[in-house]
Write a structure and sequence with these properties.
The chain is α/β, with parallel strands linked by helices and 295 residues long. The chain has 13 helices and 8 strands. Helix 3 runs parallel beside helix 4, helix 6 packs parallel to helix 7 and helix 11 runs antiparallel to helix 13. Keywords: Lyase.
Length: 295
Amino acid sequence: MRKFVGTGVALITPFKEDHSVDVEALKRLVRFQKENGINYIVVLGTTGEYATLTKEEKELVKETIVKENNGALPLVLGIGGNNTQAVTEQIKTENLKGFDAILSVSPYYVKPTQEGIYQHFKKVSQASTLPVILYNVPGRTGSNMLPATVARLANDCENIIGIKEAAGNMVQAMEMIAQTPDDFLVISGDDMITLPMVLAGGAGVISVIAEGFPKQFSEMVQLGLSREVDEAYKIHYQIAPAIDLIFAEGNPAGIKAVFKKLELAEDYVRLPLVEASKALTSKISAFVDQNKKEG
């Protein structure tokens, strides 16, 4: 699945002042990714504020992105949850036209055992007609998918092709790379350690910062994949301050502040999330201005 090697982005859902979905802004954001070196787009993930969208809004977001993308980039759809039966039923009934894979988060809140995680994803695999990318994000789910469990799924389920690994643990990431088949994609889900993961044998990233700075971040990833280490790290250190900034008050408030500064979308989010503070917005704005000068 070489189409998922490189830089993917977890796209936001832009809102208007009345907190309705801003379709025109969403189209602009898709074009911005297409025109600036991004390899694929993840739709309706955590960054897309999936949890606060109605069923009708989710369909609107999907249809808008699929139409605007027009087959230019591979698209990945987020489908996950902590009710295995509900997740598998959604996969079976969801309109997947225009999508190339599913990104499915490890069950959250209930804290399943490793065997429970394995059995959950085995059911997901059996239900899906598309390739499945696992998503491990212990900071959000409350449980960690261990390398042995990932390797077991990679070997037992042919259509489980990779994992977005967002534990923020380089040792664990390297263990996953070492223990899984050579064609299994270990994808960084942590922007700050993307380059080290790529250099250790990872397949790239599903990123938040990259959607705001797509040219730079995708170039960094490609340089890393080509083992042009010094040049890659130059970009890493240029962009690293922005990674800290966009996550300082939660995601996607920070990246939406970037898009507001870039005049691509407003920065509205839905409760229980709130917009970035004036102090943080000022710092993000200053970074964008400085980055433009240096670029």
